[in-house]
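not sure who needs this but someone in the group chat was asking about Ras-GEF domain-containing protein from Entamoeba nuttalli so here u go. i didnt clean anything up, its just raw.
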Amino acid sequence: MTTLKQQITRNPFQKTTPKSIVPPLHTNLSVAQSLPCLGSLSSPIHSPYRSKSSRSSHQTLRTITSSNQENPQTPLITTPDQHTNCSLRKIPSKLSKVCRLFYNDDKRKKQSTCTDSEIFQIWKDILIDIKNDGTSKKWRQTWKNNNLVLFEDFIINDLKFIREYVWCLPRVKREVLACLVNCVKLGYIDDSLFQYYLLNNQNFKEASSFIQTLLDNSEYIFDSNGDPCYNEDGFIIQISPKKFFLVCLHEILGSDDLITFFTESYPFFSDSLTILRWCFEYHKKIKKDFLNQSVNTENSMELMRLEKLILGVLSKKESLDEEIASEVKHYFCTGMYSNSFTVSVIEILNNKVIGETKKVSPITPSLKEEKKQKKSKSSDERRTEYIENINEVQDVNRENLFTIHPLIVAQQLIFFDSSMFNVIQPIQFYNCNSCCINKYISKLTGVKCLIQKHTTSLETFSFFLEVAKFCIALNDFNMGYIILEELLFLTKTNKDLSQLLSHEVEQQLTNSFALFSPVKRYDTYKNAIYSLLSTESFIPCIFILEKQLKKLNKKPLIENNLLNIVSIKEHYQLIQLFIYALQNPYQLEQNVSFQFFFHSMFN
């Protein structure tokens, strides 16, 4: 017994709350933590400024990290903090990789010694003064004394996205900008002074066009409703699928994190073929722009983002017909793209073209072979003690099941579960009504029948309770949940059995099932899983996922052709656990007799 318990080396569940930072008044970025290595809109995403130190000559994968140091808030649509030099235009280099809200890093001018909070108060005072009297000299002198600027080293290269540029500004700056625009229209400020306030005499070829477009379209630009639709703090709350796609790839507004979220969440609102068609169109646009400008495409930011998006979409597609595969090769296996990208595309196509590969099916023992192994045992031959060595288990049936140690039973139940779980394609979890998911749930439900038929005494009840505990200790929350839920159901419906249970056994059952309490959206259960990420294999509970998605489905994911970003993020965070679990499968020893017994019982 002691040696068996030593097989489980697992720390007790610790209640860990995902890190979150309450944004100060002058910030506007949500930094709620998402799962490791899987980007989402809840991840820290940076503002539309880039630093010299964040550039490199090669595109590399990034890991999202957080720090206890300053983590200032920035708008939702932003640029990456690591990418390569772009040959299309000069890239701003003076700002830190996480933009500070009121930070002026122009070394040609006197540096401000104020802290962020002090500068924020200055901006706030200016906003109040402008609203009270746009002709006042007080706010103008304050502006000049502190050497303020609204757009710091910000190069506007695409006026079609001017609204997005403006909404990338922190809220107080955006409100100041709106007041300045009104002052220009009322004649309180001339165009040259307006340009100074916006750009602080920075040399922009596009400055006049930008300012004129801003003035001519101010009502549309500052309106929070539109595509995208913003809240007051500058977060996107609604956006059309096509605009979402375009923003992801934009040289300044796009980011690696945003692309990751797009490729992970698009199955909620579109399909792979539609996204690939958009990629074909975007390829033609880039190619046309490059030909017109005679620019080298080797280090293009847009191309690198397009490469990442294409690989993300292709990896989601279960299979590709030859026509689509041919189009992908025609557009993307060209000299415009990097060699590593071309190799990856060809490898994916070779694996996903219909007819070339097949998904491995779950391991199901041969019925004929198993029948040959079966031998009947008399009651005298039954073991009175637990079998503690799995190699000694040569035959499993309803009569001798309870002679085998609960740990071995739990391990084989996990093998049975994982063999079905691991063959599910990640994209199947986006629709829990899919045939694949329904078949998986149907198989798991068979465990309930096993418990109902065999839980007839205090001994058998305690046996299954121990099996459930071992399943949870080994991180299979499916099996743990199914067994505990059925045992709890039996205590309420089977009065004879309930009377046999001691208070201690009932308390053990209650304490064990508390892990799956729906309080605070299954907070205890989620914290238990979060503590396992990137360290251990686990299988989340598909039944809890069903319940959570039913509640979320009351909120539409898309309405009037606008995506509800909050709803999509909530959906994705639920299935993200299952996608992550598929990346770290169990490595367990199979006992053929056990697996035959389970499949025969549950079919």
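also The chain is about 50% helix and 0% strand. if thats useful
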